[in-house]
Amino acid sequence: MAKIAIIGGATTFGATLGMVLARKRHDVFLLTRTPAEAARMENNELRNLPLPRGRFSYRMNFTASAPETMVEAKAVILVCPAQTMRQNIRQIAPYITASMLLINAAKGLEKNSCKRMSEVIAEELPLEFHPNICALSGPNLAKEILGELPAATVIAAKNSRIARAAQRLLNGPGFCVYVNSDMVGVELGGALKNIIALAAGIADGLGYGDNAKAALMTRGWAEITALGVALGANPLTFSGLTGLGDLIATCASPLSRNHYVGVELTKGRKLEEITDEMDNKAEGVDTVLAARQLAKKLGLGMPITEQIYRVLYEGIEPRVAATDLLQAETRHELEGRKWRLLNVVRKTTGAGEPRTTPSKTTGANGIDSL
């Protein structure tokens, strides 16, 4: 079996993927920030990370040493928070070789550059390593996977051989791995759904019910797809595991960190107070900054993203933001400011509905006057 390096070994999902690989009898080395953190992980002392202590745990090695983690590794899985991805890559770059798989499993966008994680990784590595970069994303709530409940995910790479290699590495009876060639869509789906999960948490916290949350999720999915298409993603990717699948899981589950933040905001708590008490990062809090910048740059209207930004960074009350959102202009559900979704549908199907505008005349049955 192979040696696998996981960067971000103290994150919940990092340790979860470590357990998935250990069950397949790989030797896993999980890089932590400090020796003390490594010791806490080794002793299973993190309160929100119930690592099962069974017949596979001996294959999981926690260490703060980059050389110990990286040397002779066949694959490197990056599960660090999005805003620290660049510094983590710089730390391990001297030990990366052209034969290593590089798998990004972080779901976020870099705040200042608005770049996807694979772009950040590529910027910090020589060109010869770029073909080995791939991305993992899907509805993968860590505690369920740790409990050996079934889950599925998707691996995307520009090179199909690389995607298949990563698929073979992680695929197993309880963890089904699909492949995709659309890295842009897979990474954006995983990152942007966290913004909608924040909104879903607010909807639940305000007691708006399932009808409202279903509408919110659907409109959020349209926003995600519109931005993804504008950035070159395949719109069908967002109907898959990284888009619709991950959106459902993170908006509906109390295990979702972003959903939790949304609920807590409705209780009048400050964002800093909520995030400071959390063991892991709620990536949507930073991702909304990058998504909003991208939307403005592209001239896209993203009303849910805008309202979440107002709640998080302008101090707007969640109920006020929700009211403003409900009063937004409505039109064809695949149409928004500079969205290309309706055009994509027309090109794909050869049909499509024209934009609906109020009529000045009354129809035969008076329908236009309603």
Explain how this protein is built.
- The protein has 370 residues and is of the alpha/beta class.
- It folds into two domains: 3-181, Rossmann fold (3-Layer(aba) Sandwich); 192-349, N-(1-d-carboxylethyl)-l-norvaline Dehydrogenase, domain 2.
- 46% of the residues lie in helices and 11% in strands.
- It is built from 16 helices and eight strands.
- The protein has helices spanning 12-23, 35-42, 66-70, 85-92, 117-123, 142-146, 160-170, 183-205, 209-230, 241-252, 257-265, 271-276, 284-298, 303-313, 318-326, 341-349, and strands at 3-7, 27-31, 60-63, 75-78, 101-104, 133-137, 151-156, 175-180.
- Strands 3-2-1-4-5-6-7-8 form an eight-stranded mixed sheet, sandwiched between helices.
- Strand 2 (27-31), helix 2 (35-42) and strand 3 form a beta-alpha-beta unit.
Record keyword descriptors for this entry:
370 residues; alpha/beta; Rossmann fold; N-(1-d-carboxylethyl)-l-norvaline Dehydrogenase, domain 2; 2 domains; eight-stranded mixed sheet; 8 strands; 11% strand; globular
